Amino acid sequence: MESMSYQSKIEAWEYNPSDDDQRLPHKYPSNRPVPLEHIHDLGILTWKLDVNDWENNPFLNKIKEERGYKYWEVATLARGVMEDYETKVKGFFQEHMHSQEEIRLILDGGYWDIRDYDDNWIRFRVEKGDLIVLPPGMCHRFTLDVNDYIKALLIYTEVPARTQHERDDHSAARKSYVEKVLKNPLALHKKIAAAS
C-alpha cells in the first residue's frame, strides 16, 4: 500500500518586518532561509500528504488515531466567500496562541508566522498537502497570500472550537512551551552554534 505521505519541504525564512502588505512574502532583499529542522526544533510537526482523497488517506487516519484527533471541518477563507473578510483576515494576523495543539491540513495555501527563540518572527509558506501541528503555547499568526484564498482541514481533539488567546506569558500552556522548547538545553545549544 502506498504511504500517502511524503517528506515535508516547507520553505521558511526570517520575516522582514515592514509596512508592506501582510500577504506578501516579507523576505529580506538577501533572503535569510530557516532550515526545516529549526522549525521542528521549535516544536512544530510537519508532513506532506496526498490530499486528492484526504478522507481516505491511511497516513492521515493513522495520525488522527495516534494523536487522538476526533473532529474536523473544512474551512475556506476567501474574498467574496466569507462575511467581514477584511476584519477576519486582520484578526488572524494578530499574534495569538492556543491552549491546545493547532492542527491544519492545507488544501490550498497561505503563510504562517511563528516566534523564534529570540522572539523574532519566522515566516513559512504552507501549500496543498502540508499537515502542520503547532504546539500549545506557541505564539503565531497566519495570513493569506496575494491570491486571497486558503482552504484547510481544521482538526481537533475535542469538539471543534477555534479558540485563540492573546499572547499571555503567564498562561499554563505558554509556560509549558517555554520550559519544554524555548529553554531546552539542546535547542539553546543549536541556536548558539547557528549564530557562530
Give descriptors for this structure.
196 residues, alpha+beta, 5 helices, globular
The major sheet is characterized as:
6 strands, antiparallel
Overall residue-averaged pLDDT value: 88
Gap from first CA to last CA: 45 Å
Total strands: 11
Low-pLDDT windows of residues: none
Spell out the helices and strands N to C: EEEHEHEHEEEEEEHH
Computed structural class: alpha+beta
Q: How large a portion of the residues is in β-strands, by DSSP E?
A: 25-35%
Residue share in helix: 10-25%
Give the radius of gyration. Answer: 17 Å
Strand order of the largest sheet: 1-4-9-6-11-5
Number of helices: 5
Shape: globular
Structure report:
With 196 residues, the protein is of the alpha+beta class. Helices cover 23% and strands 29% of the residues. The protein has helices at 36-41, 58-67, 85-92, 172-182, 185-195, and strands at 5-6, 12-14, 33-34, 45-49, 71-78, 102-108, 110-115, 121-126, 130-134, 140-143, 149-156. The strands form 2 sheets. A 6-stranded antiparallel sheet has the order 1-4-9-6-11-5. Strands 3-2-8-7-10 form a 5-stranded antiparallel sheet. The protein is globular. The relative contact order is 0.21.
Q: How is the topology of this model organized?
A:
Elements: E1 5-6, E2 12-14, E3 33-34, H1 36-41, E4 45-49, H2 58-67, E5 71-78, H3 85-92, E6 102-108, E7 110-115, E8 121-126, E9 130-134, E10 140-143, E11 149-156, H4 172-182, H5 185-195
Antiparallel strand pairs: 1-4, 2-3, 2-8, 4-9, 5-11, 6-9, 6-11, 7-8, 7-10
Provide a short characterization of the protein structure.
With 196 residues, the chain is of the alpha+beta class. The chain has five helices and eleven strands. A hairpin with a 5-residue loop joins strand 7 and strand 8.
